[in-house]
Amino acid sequence: MLARSRDMVARYPDVAALTLVVLVAALVRLAFAFRSPIFLLRDSGSYFLPAWDLAHGLGFDLSIRRTPLYPWFLSGAIVLFGEELQAIALVQHALGIVTAASVYALGRLTFGRLAGLGAGLLTALDGTLLVSERYVMPEALLVPLLLMTLIMATLAIRRRSSRGFLLTGLLLGLSVLCKPVAQVLVPLFALAALLSTTPWIGRWLAPSQAVARGQAPCLPGMLNWKASACLLAGLAVVLVPWMLRNLAVHGSLTTAGALGQTLVARTAKHDTGFRWHDPRAVEQYADGREAVARQIVQSGIRQRLSDGVIYRRVQERLQLSDAEVNGFMRDLALNVIWAQPAYYLRGTLGMTWELLVGEPERLRTDWKTQNARLSRDEWEERIEHLLGKPSTVHQNEFPRAEAIVGLYQPAALGPLLPLLALLGTILAALRAPLRPALLPGLAALALLGVSAALDGPVPRYRYPADPLIALAAMGGMVGVLQLARLGIMRLTGRARTEAVLAPSSPSAGVPREQKPVSITNPRPQPGRAP
Q: Which of 190, 373, 406, 425 is the most buried (most CB within 10 A)?
């Protein structure tokens, strides 16, 4: 039986590796699912309430600050499985299993089977991702969507497929409608599509074996405008209808209008060193509203208020709509940043590194979220009955739940994982067969860099990049092991060669005198007559 299993693994290694990843991910989530309550943030209600209304036929009144895909997902889960929050968490755990499997698939396409298996197992065990699947927040849906987008983009680049880039655009559009931060990947994918058939970058992007087999033909001197147009067309098919809806409802042609609040968080909550209000420069402000808003923000910084509280105070004081206050505060925050560009850049770089390293998940903090006043304030009476306190069973199971979350956390490794990920990305740039792996590494850096630049080092903003960092890190580790193995083989091969050629004694290397052998009178051989 054991021999037969080994034979099956040898014949179907990808099936065996994928099965192992899925099995580990499923077991970890089943062990955790019934030991933990649902976790909530202040924003959870603004996603769940429109979903609940839609599922009960009460319309879909979504704020301009929110994108619609996650509320639609919640509404579908409510229709299929009921409004119990535990059912939603189980569906999100199923997405977590899809995430682990997708990491293996992406790793298999980029760094190879071994790196894909390592990254898939790390993702399956990742305690921070496990906790994120218990939150009523869009990251649980965004992570698998981004991975599927990267898989499709990698296949499209390998095959030079316009249809593949069209599907990439559709998936990327869904990711943007899940959370606007995915917009940062649009130029990255569009550039990859545009350059995929140039003679010097097309071959550089694709594995040399694929080019040699004729699977990736290059068009000399031409950019792949068709592929880039297909990607943008797929993106537009998904995004434009929602943008037109926002224009009709809120008067703003955008996917979501939350940039004003996020920039307030970046410049007034996560970094309090910006100068929002200077009493000596009041006359320089554009109008009275700007002076009032600046004073409110500066006061909020002194009181260490949250960005949401500051934002709402400005909106109520100036009597602005959601779209108006977003645009007003966005422009004001950009002016504040522009006044201190070097300070802003230093802070962004530091926050990006902070997100890359991460911080350990403290389950006890998550555990208390259902009792938090700020979370419950966002839930209206008709759905407040869903917010039960953690049960006695959950309280008793807390130590075991904490142990499961602590099985593996990326932040516990400190800077090791980001450094390995950086090494993996460098190896992908230097070695032709690994060049498709540039997309995951660059996507992780883009996601974290934009999150740090526009909002700040919020720990949950690392969730979408976690699997990508794990994959690039495993690629770096496998690359180092392969280089070490190659070096050892060369050293041992050289040593064997030197051992064969080396003289056996000090005199062995000196040629001995030999007697000449006569051809006409050869030396007689034993057993023969002369």
A: 425
List C-alpha distances in Å: 350 to 129, 182, 453: 23, 21, 10
The residue with tokens 């934009």 is 450
Distances from the Cα of 159 to the Cα of 207, 214, 345, 431, 481, angstroms:
10, 10, 38, 19, 29
In contact, 104 and 7? CB cutoff 8 Å: no
Residues 268-273: contacts with CB under 8 Å, at least 24 apart? 268/297, 268/300, 268/301, 268/307, 268/310, 269/305, 269/306, 269/307, 269/310, 269/456, 270/351, 270/455, 270/456, 270/457, 270/458, 271/347, 271/351, 271/456, 272/301, 272/304, 273/343, 273/347
- Return d(Cα 212, Cα 208) in angstroms, integer: 6
Q: How many CA atoms lie within 13 A of 385 on its CB side?
A: 4
What predicted TM-score, i.e. pTM, was given to this entire model? 0.85
Give the residue from 478, 439, 424 showing the smallest Cα distance to 109: 439
Partners of residue 39 on adjacent β-strands:
135
Question: Residue 154 in contact with residue 143, Cβ under 8 Å?
Answer: no
Please name every residue paired with 126 in a beta bridge, in sequence order, or none if there are none.
408
Task: Give the closest residue to 151 by CA, choosing from 174, 136, 140, 167.
Answer: 167
Bigger pLDDT: 158 vs 151: 151
Confidence at 88, pLDDT banded by 50, 70, 90: very high
Mean pLDDT of the chain: 84
Alpha helices in 372-523 (DSSP H): 373-376, 381-384, 392-405, 416-430, 438-454, 466-501
Q: H-helix or E-strand containing 214?
A: none
Tokens 């808003």 belong to 293
User: Residue 157 and residue 162: Cα distance in Å, rounded?
Assistant: 9
One-letter amino acid of 288: G
Q: What angle do CA 448, 266, 242 make, to 5 degrees?
A: 70
Separation of alpha carbons 68 and 63, rounded Å: 9
Q: Is the pLDDT of residue 451 over 70?
A: yes
Calpha distance 350→371 (Å, rounded): 33
- Give the SS3 label for residue 166: helix
Q: Does the pLDDT at position 375 exceed 60?
A: no
Which stretches within 265-367 are classed as H helix?
288-303, 307-318, 322-339, 341-357, 363-367
Residue type at position 211: V
- What does the block give as tokens for 149? 């987008």
Hey, CA dihedral for 363, 415, 465, 350, is it positive or negative? positive
